[in-house]
Amino acid sequence: MPIDDQDGFTREEVRLALRNPGMPLEALRWPLTPVGMHYVLVHFDVPAIDDASHELVVDGRVRTPLSLTMDELRARPAVSLPVVMECAGSGRAHLAPRPVSAPWHDEAIGCAEWTGTPLRALLEEAGLLDDAVEVLFTGCDRGLDQDVEQDYQRSLPVDEALGDDVLLAYAMNGQPLPPTHGFPLRLVVPEWYGMASVKWLRSITAIAEPFHGVQQTALYRYRQAEDEPGTPVTRKRPRAVMAPPGVPEFFSRVRHVRRGPTPITGRAWSGGSAIRRVEFSADGGRTWHDTTLDAPLGRHGWTGWSYVWDASEPGDHELCVRATDARDETQPLGADAVWNRGGYGVNAVQRVPVRVS
Fold first, then answer.
1. The pairing of beta strand 289-290 with beta strand 167-172
2. Which of 181, 221, 261, 268 has the CB geometry, 3.0–4.6 Å to 230, for a possible disulfide?
3. Do residues 244 and 317 touch, judged by C-beta distance below 8 A?
4. CA 38 – CA 23 distance, rounded (Å)
């Protein structure tokens, strides 16, 4: 249930925050996020899996069920792709009322190079039957959510599962997946929010009717009221984030900047659409200035941007940044514009308090 107190985080939220670290925003200065700085979200427990005995099963509405070891998966044609991973709950801490869950601000992001074998080739080898409408992915992690004991499961429509760049990934930044990122095998769905990229993957099942599990129908839905079904969270919405300039005050994280020209840099992305424009504001969003865009980091990586801010006026400032994608969708200024009961997909502009001296 959402709560009205914006600042008083509950014990449960603090515990989730300690279990699930976000990416320090200074990591935006790296084109690829170092593995130890990439955000983590683990719904239940991190399972201990033996790489040598782990098998991936492909079954359900297929002509030829498959069972593959990790060695067999690694022997298949491999692809490496930089992909922005973003939690669907990114920004929920800015909402009022605030849904009680992992209290993300702006840090539930990362961009790693994922290496694996294309899912489409595996599904084509298994042979999807004509009545298959979705592909269900099941992880090895199990727990309770919404009072239901469950494996973590998500499905994709068949046409999305057959997308060109959907991967069965076993490496991250050139190294085997760390346990918190899905060792030994995970799904990577580049255009969608992170909930679709099932970790610790153990089975892929073609199904003849839509999946109605908790993670699909009760959670990860945009809702304006508790009693409405809502619409599913799918592709990432346009978003830009800056690496905070200057130096931070330890407790408040307010940034301190010396007067003079101040370079501001960051990254922007959108699911399935290129970034067309990134704008910077030094006055809380009243006036905006275009930034300079770098070439994107591949089809699914982020786009770097930069701007030189004339920090000549001493005092307190609120820096903002917003992205517009090729579909002409622009980030909203405030969380109220995207408020929803589930607290998912909140892509309101980042606001960074800065003191110039």
1. unpaired
2. 221
3. no
4. 5
